[in-house]
Amino acid sequence: MINPGRSYNVEDYKEIFLRRKLYFVIPLVVVLLGACLVAVLTPKKYMASTLVLVTPPRIPAELVRSTVTSGITERLNSISQEIMSRTRLEAVIDELKLFPEESKKMDREALVALMRQNIKVDIPQRASENLGYFAVKYTSKDPVVAAAVANKISSLFIEENLKQREQQAVGTSEFLANELKGTKERLESQGKELADYKRRHLGELPEQRDTNIRLMEQLQQLYQRNEESLRAAQDRQLLIGRQMRDLENPAVQQGETGSGGRSRGSFETQLDDMKKNLAELQSRYTERHPDVVSLKRKIAEMEKRKDAFNINNDPRYRELANNMTATEMEIKRLQDESGKLRSQIGQYRGKDRGRYGSRTADVFACPGV
After folding, report:
1. Which of 57, 261, 343, 353 could bridge to 253 as Cys pair (CB 3.0-4.6 Å)?
2. Is 184 helix (H, G, I), strand (E, B) or coil?
3. Torsions phi, psi of 219, nearest 5?
4. Which DSSP letter does residue 71 get?
5. Number of domains composing the chain
6. Are residues 357 and 217 in the same domain?
7. Hey, is 88 helix, strand or coil?
C-alpha cells in the first residue's frame, strides 16, 4: 500500500507500476478492442467535398461596373436557400436515384429532410468583397454517390449564380438602354435649344466678338474698295459722255458738206433753214418758179444724204454708246453693293455696341454708313 506520510521517488513509482501493471493494461486493451468492434460493426459513411472558388470579373470595375451589387457571402446564402429547397432536392434525388431502400419506407418530404441532413455547405463569413469560396459536402454510405451528389450540388450553385447574374445583367441592360435613350433625348433637346439660341443671337455671343471684329474689318475693306471702283466708274461715265457730246456737236465749218462738217446738229440746222426758206418762197411764188424749183432740188439732195450725217451710224459713237451702257450698269451694281455693305456694317456696329460697348464700332466707322 501507499503510505501517505512517505515520500516517493521515480524508482518507487516504477516499482508500483510493475507490481500492478494489470490495472493499466487490461483497461487499455478493452478500449482498443471496443474501438475496433465499433469501427467494424458501425455502417461506413463517406464524405465528398467540392471547393468552389468565386473569382472577380475580369473587366476592371473602373471601365464597367458590375451588375451584382450584393456581397459574396450574402449572394451565396441566397443561392444556398434556393438550392436546398424541396423542389431542387427532389429533382436531384430523382436524377441520381438516391435512397432506393429508404424510398420504400419514407415519403418524399422525409427523403428531402434526410438528404438535407447529409448536405453541408460551408460559406466563410469573412469572404472578401471580390474574392471568395465555399465548400459543398455530402455524406453517404456509397463513396460514388457522395461524390456525384457533391458535384451535382456544386454545379447547381454555379448554374444558379449564372442565372441570377444573367437576370441582373438583363435588368441592367434594360435600365441602361432606357437611361441612354432618355439621356440622348435630353442631349438632342438641349443641342437643338442651343443651336436655336445661337441662330437667334448670331454674332451676339461673347465668344464671337473676335469674329465680329474681323468681319467688320473685312466689310470695311470691301466697302472702301467698292467706293473706289464706284468713283472710277462715275469718272469714266463723265469722260464717255463728254466724248459723245463732242461727236454730236463739232465745230461748224465753212461749206455745206465740208470734210469736217458732217454732224447731226449742222446738217439738221441747214435742212431746217432750207425748208423754212422754201415755205416762204412758196407763199410768194408758184411751184414753177425757178427759185422754188431750185430750192426743192437742193432739199431733195440733202434728204438723200441724210444717212451720211446720222451720228448713230458713226462707229466711234456706237462704241462710246455701248461703253456708256456698260458703265451705267456697273455703277448701278456698285451702288447696290455699297448699300448692302453699309447695311451689314451697320448691323455689326449695332451688335458690337449692344454687347461689347461702342468703342470698337467707332473704330470701324465708315463714310456714308
Report:
1. 261
2. helix
3. -65, -40
4. -
5. 3
6. yes
7. helix
